[in-house]
Design brief:
homodimer, 557 residues, NAD (chain A), 6-stranded mixed beta sheet, 22 strands, alpha/beta, Aldehyde Dehydrogenase, Chain A, domain 2, Ald_DH_CS_CYS (chain A), 17 helices, Aldehyde Dehydrogenase, Chain A, domain 1, EC 1.2.1.3 (chain A), 7-stranded mixed beta sheet
Amino acid sequence: MSVTGGRIQQTGGASSSSHTERKRANTNSQPSNGHEQLAGNGCDHQGPNQEHRSQRVDGSKTKALPTPIPDPPILYTKLFINNDWHESCSGRKIPVYNPTTGELLCEVEEADSEDVDEAVRSARAAFQMGSPWRSMDASDRGRLLNRLADLVERDRLLLATLEALDCGKVFLMAYFVDLMATIKTLRYYGGWADKIHGKTIPVDGEYFTYTRHEPIGVCGQIIPWNFPVMMFVWKIAPALCCGNTVVIKPAEQTPLSALHMAALIKEAGFPPGVVNVVPGYGETAGCAISHHMDIDKVAFTGSTDVGKLIQKAAGESNLKRVTLELGGKNPNIVFADCDLEYAVEQAHSGLFFNQGQCCLAGSRVFVEEPVYEEFVRLSVERAKSKVLGNPLLPGVDQGPQIDQKQFDKIMELIESGKREGATLECGGSMWGQQGLFIQPTVFSNVTDDMLIAKEEIFGPVQQIMCFRSISEVIQRANATHYGLVAGVFTNDINKALTVSSALQAGIVWVNCYNAMSAQCPFGGFKMSGNGRELGKYALQEYTEVKAVTIKISQKNS
Amino acid sequence: MSVTGGRIQQTGGASSSSHTERKRANTNSQPSNGHEQQAGNGCDHQGPNQEHRSQRVDGSKTKALPTPIPDPPILYTKLFINNDWHESCSGRKIPVYNPTTGELLCEVEEADSEDVDEAVRSARAAFQMGSPWRSMDASDRGRLLNRLADLVERDRLLLATLEALDCGKVFLMAYFVDLMATIKTLRYYGGWADKIHGKTIPVDGEYFTYTRHEPIGVCGQIIPWNFPVMMFVWKIAPALCCGNTVVIKPAEQTPLSALHMAALIKEAGFPPGVVNVVPGYGETAGCAISHHMDIDKVAFTGSTDVGKLIQKAAGESNLKRVTLELGGKNPNIVFADCDLEHAVEQAHSGLFFNQGQCCLAGSRVFVEEPVYEEFVRLSVERAKSKVLGNPLLPGVDQGPQIDQKQFDKIMELIESGKREGATLECGGSMWGQQGLFIQPTVFSNVTDDMLIAKEEIFGPVQQIMCFRSISEVIQRANATHYGLAAGVFTNDINKALTVSSALQAGIVWVNCYNAMSAQCPFGGFKMSGNGRELGKYALQEYTEVKAVTIKISQKNS
């Protein structure tokens, strides 16, 4: 069975002709090691590092790759509260920029604490006993989520285009990864809605005991700018599946897809107040959510520093439940016995995916000594093959960073790497005349005490370290406050199981990286957060367990 | 089948002869409504409100009730770290008093932050990869917990005596409730140890995914003074069952049973460092635990105010996982159609159990109007029947409050009830010449805005309110920041299911109160805490989910 769809990297490189050094490799840059060939089965997968095939129409023909909608209309720029569009109380607006060009896309109403209060009142009313939402069959909640998935499929091109415009994402990545994950996550939790089971429990004594897994109530959700629509759905889907109501704040940089989703939520038929979308800044709207006395649960994805503030705010206010998905400085461990070219490719995309703007980024690549130099050489070759440019154009596989602040932070960390003595193998500078592009950068001879080995960079900067023994690499991989994900490349089952058990990380990938799936729980150990998203595990983060014990006259086993 | 064991209240009232008004009713004070009679099956149950029968030797004979050990030796007064006894770094000691007499029982080493550091180092070493504890079979962890249960059974009289001396608990209550729960909880989690299952997950793509539910690491546990040995085991048993290591701080008022447990832990054969016991004060040792950078999880039982500090401390330090069991102002709703005498008795013990020093105390009794006056009359009669005195003496069923601070707070709240216009039906003053006794107190005509209807009193003070409709009582019952437990008395299945679903509480008891069991999850909604203890649910509070995804060459369903 052969892969019939074209790979993204095979769609040409016309837009990158000004950047000749990267042109060649992009047209056929991925090593072929047989894994993908065998795996081709015509289905789309949502992992960012999986094959992005177009769907086959029949056994031999393929559809053309999707293309962005030219100059898409930006229909929704207001606050979405109680299924209506509102202007902000303050009258303030957020300017929304295209990071590729720096141009203003539109202005969006800016929510502050008064608007958050209004959204919470709406969400609280929708959660009242006897409301349409509280008295709805769980299976109907599932139908609504599936209907929302249908609408996202309908508007998939538009949403992917908005992501590329607003976030600087490579359009095809947005289409095949972000939107695929969005749709699959909605359907996955649509299926769970009427399968959230309590237990009956054989307690001691003459009692009958059962548990109900009840919705928690009003959930405040704060999401980042790196996967705007996917994060939106990772947050709302389990919350709604369990019967909660939501006040969600998209990042100020990337509110457009969230507002479009709001319109789809209304169109799908969710009752008013069930989902409220309040674009705003962290220090104002985010702070109002995390300190709110009538929000029962807060879920946050973002930096560890802000995560700590969210946790504190829960203690300072009403002890709302807190789940956090925070930063990572993720180890990716490559043993000498592995399929090296494959590992190079996985480590490359495991870091450079989404311009390196991933909490999952494998930013500490530990390579076993015998293959270290070869690994570095191939990684540099691969990094140099990347095509930078306007992410809406075909053939481009790296867009701009999200904003000046992130850009400056990344450049500073690159400078620190040079200063502290790491070997700059390629990149290391900005790219192009406009926008916020950074050359794909590879550092070798990185030691664990360097800033670039300790700080989350959130940019296209790969650190490659050398290791000699399994115990050494376990110790070094774990020597961080973070614990989000990790990768291991080896064909030795003992190494794979020993290392995957020993790594302090919420996800360990063996012979793969970034292999995400709606069914698989996601979340960190240590200061990478707490709680899990996705999978069945997320349901327990959105339910409150109530035990009901009823006196009976006699036990009857 | 008849109940063959004697009830506690039937064992006489000799010690209370100085307190004549309460003597009569105690000898046969519980109404008999047939429920308990039918339920008698010879087994001990751990709920505080269940029948406390002595175990039958055969079908007709009964054993005598247990009696306290006279002048029990206090063998353990030092810090327990790494299976050794240590003096505190500061040299300071905690004076430990008998609240019944005010006399000094002993002095115990006082842990401060340096000692906590030492305990954490010991717990961390015990948690290292390759340690005896980390490489032990899960079934052997279960055996150790069962062996510890055996040792607690062996020392049950001594431990119950220590509880009565140190905490002022009625000895038979300590023996039958606290120690029974302690033993059952150990055995319950002993059984779970090798049944903590991860999942295999059908993810999209050519991958094999499984989850491991790994121990979190070093758990800091901070427990209160009201159920010293039971809380100790509620905390350590699930933690150890899942493979964690523990640094536990008993309350400064009641360290004696925890230190005896430490000796039993060593005797049972737990490896050094797995459990470390550090008596100390909240502001010093407790603060050190909650802020510690090398403690991975903190579990706290205590007041909501301190719970908020614990939550904040996690945000200020290392984002350790937090579970909290906090205060309650628990509604107990009595409908007119219920078995009124049974409801009176359950509401009585649901409030007065353990001198009212329970987070579960049903301190807002809502009674439906048609039976309100009768309910009040019977409740007052029942309260007046209580026998106060030395909790080591037979026949006594109410001991002293724990300390002067609590005593003063309760007396102040009683004064506020009088001042705010509630009707003082009985009690309302201190009792006796020495010690910290408070008369069983009943207020009727309590309105929701009174302090005694809003604040957790943690003393023998019962508030009885009147209600007229089901929607009214649901609204009033939920109109609090707390949400721990609730009771409902009715024989109408629609009322029972409507109200139990609508109440915002982690446990709802129908036609019973305080019916606890190791199998049943326990924990609060809203500001009564987060997370669950007991039952299978507690396991998820002591495990960190790791998803491992392995690349495979082809899917094979």
